[in-house]
Amino acid sequence: xxxxxxxxxxxxxxxxxxxxxxxxxxxxxxxxxxxxxxxxxxxxxxxxxxxxxxxxxxxxxxxxxxxxxxxxxxxxxxxxxxxxxxxxxxxxxxxxxxxxxxxxxxxxxxxxxxxxxxxxxxxxxxxxxxxxxxxxx
Length: 137
Fold this sequence. Notes:
alpha+beta, 4-stranded mixed beta sheet, two-stranded antiparallel sheet
């Protein structure tokens, strides 16, 4: 079934006001949003928070799937927004094929200020400047 699909339940509606047979009940399906996954057809989408050092150095992290956690390899040098594909980890269709799970990396910095990180970033800015927006024009 899909979100918004209607199902007819023959003879299970309201009885006729004139003594005839009950009508049909029409049920419209609405999916509640999942707290972790977003649905895209048979594919699922997941925003996965990662640390700055996991994205920079690469790491193996746990990622949730419908079947439980899997170990996901974060390639070294990954940017926030990078999308990784887990084949066959989406929703199953009526024919038994499964969609994919697309994991988008989201780099999350520590909540509290870190003087060492700030010092490192200032030094990095001075010694290795770059402009990631230069291709925008």
